[in-house]
What we know:
Elements: E1 2-7, H1 11-20, E2 28-34, H2 37-47, E3 51-55, H3 63-72, E4 78-83, H4 88-96, E5 101-104, H5 109-143, H6 147-155, H7 161-170, E6 180-189, H8 203-211, E7 217-223, E8 226-232, H9 240-253, E9 255-261, H10 268-281, H11 284-287, E10 293-295, H12 310-326, H13 330-338, H14 348-370, H15 382-386, H16 391-411, H17 417-428, H18 436-442, H19 447-458, H20 462-477, H21 484-490, H22 496-507, H23 511-525
Parallel strand pairs: 1-2, 1-3, 3-4, 4-5, 9-10
Antiparallel strand pairs: 6-8, 6-9, 7-8
Helix pairs in contact: 2-3, 4-14, 6-7, 12-14, 13-16, 21-22
Amino acid sequence: MFSVVLIDDIPTIVEALEYGIPWKNYGFRVTGRFYDGEEALQHILEHGADVVLTDIRMPRMDGLQLIRHMKEAGIKPKVIALSAYSEFSYAQELMRYGGYGYLLKPLDEMELEKMLQDASIELKREEQERKRKLLLESVRDSISMSHKPWLIQLLDPSTGPAEAADILRNFGLKSQKPVLRPVMIGFRPGRQAGEHGKLQADWLELLHTYFEGTFDFALFVIREGHVLLAVDDGLNPPAAFPECVERFARDCLGCTISMTVGASATRLEPLQASIQSTLRADRIHFYEEQVKVIQAVNVPLSAPPPEWSGIQGKQKISEKLYRRIRLDDIEEFRTWIEELRRSPSMDPEQVADAFHELFVYVKAYFWEEHGAALHSLNGLHPEAFRECRSLTELICLGVSVSEQLIAEAKCIHVDKSIVDKAKAYAKQHLNRPISLEEVSEYVNLSKNYFCNLFKEETSLTFWDYLTNLRVDRAKDLLSSEMKNYEIALTVGYENASYLSKVFKKTVGMTPSEYRRILYEKSVTSD
């Protein structure tokens, strides 16, 4: 089961969370409960945590400081922040440090449980992904050593020719005096190739076996489905290599390829420069997926759009996107995203993560302005965007999510009739206990937003309105021969003692005293 740590400076809230939420139903168990951030941080540093529920405002170390310390320590649990204050700056700060969710007190249990369900699904997916990567790494290590660190070392300006030659030999190159040409290959599996179209773990072994004796090369795994080869042009004509790789991908893997070919080099410094330019130019395939082979030397690389840089830029873009969604204007969203295609310099993973962050901010903006959650975004994780193999796929996903948001936003319509509807519901069910969750669900609003709307329209909280309604009804019944306990049950209280307590607080006297005054008035009038 996944571990949960609960943190709040109010002990009753911690206890209510621990015993009021069916943690086991979602695959969690509470492993720590703390009343300040410092003690909680020490526990998390020593024992870890999969999910952290923390209050924002606490003495000694507040929730945002706790999140920063965890991030600095390299610990990345799913952090759900709790706050009694509807301040958007908190949501912004939380998202900036990788927070998972933000909920207002008093907590809506259904909303919290839905968030826990989503977190559980994501944690299971991440656990499966870690196991899959370990399996893939074991295959990679059987062919060579660890790839990326050695490639970074090869590209380091301080690396000498002899050390570079050793690295290339360790990664498969046999020739002593090669003419090396960097070639970046991306394998694009068909959707029939398995879940999410991922390649089988043994494809690297197949690649080595297929080309052994035909081409001499060193192979570096860059990321899943992407390899960098330093190919010796002297063994076979370089023009034959792309055709052979394409045939290998089709016959052995059942997939297509993209390829970026760099300039050949006989010395280390030109080779390093050629590899760097090849890696940068390979990004073009993400933006222009119809192009199969790119010559890196012919690719001019432009700077990314300035509005994409930094947190503030992303917030501005997401606010624009939110406004477009509210105006049902998807076309402008398409046009705006297409600007990326004219500036193909951002790393594809950066673009995918930027898309995900945009929708996270959209959710926060919508909650801030309307007090209602956009459920279309529940379960939308970064992996959904990272699995897109091209900008076209990414745009299609973004447009699809935006259309869902528009449809959902249209359904969230608030007006004064909702308050009247809530009042009528309270009167209709006055003879039994009524919860805020029950009423807010009846009027189809979040609990927090309903409370704010009701007070704005009536100058009373819903609880104050309900109490006045019960007390006024009790006043009417006290003129009858009904016993006090019967009146209590009639107006929705469990016993006469509780009715007496509420009645005295509201009216200034007990029900018995009020009944006596009514009796005296009736005698006097007679």
